[in-house]
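User: Okay, second chain of the day. Same drill as before: sequence in, structure tokens out.
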Amino acid sequence: MRGLEVVRAGALTTLQDLGRPGYAHFGVPRSGALDAGAHALANRLLGNPPGAAVLETTVDGVALRAVGGPVTVAVTGAPCAVRACGRPVAWGAPVWLRAGAELEVGRAESGVRGYVSVRGGFAVEPVLGSRSTDLLSGLGPPVLTAGAVLPVGAPGPDPVAGADAPAAPGPPSELVLPLRLGPRADWFTAQSLTERLLRGRYTVSAASNRIGLRTEGPALLRARGGELPSEGMVLGAVQVPPDGRPVVFLADHPVTGGYPVVGVVPPGPALDAAAQSPPGLPVRFVRSR
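Assistant: Same drill. Structure tokens below.
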């Protein structure tokens, strides 16, 4: 059986694909890759189907060894140094590994999360149709640990070398998030929305994770007291907990919540950028319709 053995697991490395849509009414989060664009590119480079599972690394990369035969891999997401058998190889391009060869994905030079794909995809057992690790619910394969062996599936069509390897843009100097106000914007004072949320300056909190991007900055002020009954939450929902500082829900977000949602950041490049935003990065919310 061809596979990749984990030599060094890194700070947090998980398997991720397109997630588990359609199960929220059972209390199951969607999960999936935080940086959807980097996940898609990693698979296109190797001719994999869009839903193939890849590895998502956090900050300090991962080290893997090819076992049972040769494999072809690619690394996207946060730019980093990539080595095979100790020698530099291309980032953002297919890399062939002979059996026994080690791939070292280094520390992110900018950004936070890297993506490692293998031709044929990682063939771990799916749970509810997905191979994603969900850190909130605990569904899916466990977080990677040293010594684990990940099986590789049968390869698909040959990739077109270089066809999908554009120069990767570095993370922005400021994270700009388009915000559609509502459904609970009326729970906050009008002055709080204009002067604090839309004109204030926030930064990414070190407490951010796959569940949500937490912010530090001016607290939003309530226009009413009391609490909401729990209601459904969506990807990109901006929930405001009692401390008044917005939290942008990411892939492992809960399916319900009782704190008011001041607005929603639509899925797309802005949420991909949020996945690559390190602590301390300035954040600005811009009203969108």
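Residues 36-44 form the longest helix (9 residues).

User: Thanks, on to the next one.
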